[in-house]
From TrEMBL:
GO molecular function: structural molecule activity
One family name in Pfam for this protein: FlgI
Biological role stated in the UniProt entry: Assembles around the rod to form the L-ring and probably protects the motor/basal body from shearing forces during rotation.
Broad class of where this protein is predominantly found: other
GO biological process entries: bacterial-type flagellum-dependent cell motility
Signal peptide (residue range): 1-25
Organism listed in the record: Xaviernesmea rhizosphaerae
Protein name: Flagellar P-ring protein
Cross-referenced InterPro entries: Flag_FlgI
Cellular localization per UniProt: Bacterial flagellum basal body
Subunit structure: The basal body constitutes a major portion of the flagellar organelle and consists of four rings (L,P,S, and M) mounted on a central rod.
């Protein structure tokens, strides 16, 4: 009997916990922040894609492609003096990649290629050996391999169809890293964590969580929130930075974000944050539709008369207004706000207009971001 009562109490407590909406989200530090010294670096290079089926650059319209082709053949020991190439199987491309943090020579990364000339498709092409340089001008990787294009196009004499982009593609694992970054992780004296979404509450909470861990492990405070985005961690004596970072990045913290409503008018997408509130406000929404129809009438003259055939215009205009009901909105939480907007019975474009009007009236307690 006592066990049954305890089970009922546990189930009731679980229901209460599920019914309460948490104001904060629990996340690991590795999911909300990144190591400053462990950021990615961008690489760029210029190369050629060969093996295209007549969809490459027109060498007359893209002279840089012909110059690159001649330079490549000369490096291979083939003389091109006095010759004129009309090949349509080659295209000049720009190659980009992201060098991951702590990448070592010999590892591979993905690269992205995009056409520079008037090529119509890179499908079936092969990227020729291309050097990838960083912002300092040093070569950090070399790319080569088959280009994967997801889009396709087909064309006939009277019709054509195209899906996706055929002038850009990827080379999976197409670049080999040849040089590592000069900075070493363990050479630093501290760790700097940068929040992906800057917020003072989250930064201070992260520093407090790290200090509680450090007080238990090392006997002192090691973290300080410098601003809304940066948390600096001093290296304890005799502590290994890699082990320290592995322990810190798995600590769980409460993340907080400002109240924000993101609206994309092109797609009709509306994203409402957890902490968005609306003061009591009355909203009326109505749609006015005006339809103009032209039905001209041809008027014929009487038989054996000298009249002329004329066209008599006939215009029909209809105006229709829907909606117009007044609804009360009081968004004390996200669930009641969504229920109130749905109760008006309008489409996403109408909700966008309503949110803009509520913001102008000063009743929307959130930032309205229009995309």
């Amino acid at each position: 009997m006592i066990q049954n009562v305890l089970r009922c109490l546990v189930a009731f407590a679980a229901m209460l916990l599920l019914a309460v909406e948490p104001a904060f989200a629990i996340s690991r530090i590795k999911d909300v922040a990144s190591l400053q010294s462990g950021r990615e670096n961008q690489l760029i290079g210029y190369g050629l894609v060969v093996g295209l089926q007549g969809t490459g650059d027109s060498l007359r319209s893209s002279p840089f492609t012909e110059q690159s082709l001649r330079a490549m053949l000369q490096n291979l020991g083939i003389s091109t003096q006095g010759g004129e190439s009309r090949s349509k199987n080659i295209a000049a491309v720009l190659v980009t990649a992201n060098l991951p943090p702590f990448a070592s020579p010999g590892s591979r990364i993905d690269v992205t290629v995009g056409s520079l000339g008037d090529s119509t498709s890179l499908r079936g092409g092969t990227l020729v050996m291309t050097s990838l340089s960083g912002a300092d001008g040093q070569i950090y990787a070399v790319a080569q391999g088959s280009v994967v294009v997801t889009g396709f196009s087909a064309q006939g004499q009277a019709a054509s169809v195209q899906q996706g982009v055929t002038t850009a593609g990827r080379v999976p694992n197409g670049a080999i890293i040849e040089r590592e970054l000069p900075a070493k992780f363990k050479d630093g004296v501290n760790l700097t964590l940068q929040l992906r979404n800057p917020d003072f509450s989250t930064a201070v909470g992260m520093a407090d969580t790290i200090n509680r861990y450090a007080s238990h492990r090392y006997g002192g405070r090691i973290a300080e929130a410098r601003d809304s985005q940066t948390v600096v961690i001093d290296r304890p004596k005799m502590a290994d930075l890699a082990k320290l970072m592995a322990d810190i990045e798995n600590l769980e913290i409460q993340t907080d974000t400002p109240a924000r409503v993101v609206v994309n008018e092109r797609t009709g997408t509306i994203v409402i944050g957890q902490d968005v509130r609306i003061a009591p406000v009355a909203v009326s929404f109505g749609t006015l539709t005006v339809q103009v129809t032209e039905t001209p009438t041809v008027v014929q003259p009487a038989p054996f008369s000298r009249g002329e055939t004329a066209v008599e215009p006939n215009t029909n205009i209809q105006a229709q207004q829907t909606g117009g009901t007044v609804a009360m909105l009081n968004g004390s939480n996200l669930r009641s706000l969504v229920s109130g907007l749905n109760s008006i019975g309008v489409k996403p474009d109408g909700i966008i207009s309503i949110l803009q009007g509520i913001k102008t009236a000063g009743a929307l307690q959130a930032e309205l971001v229009l995309q």
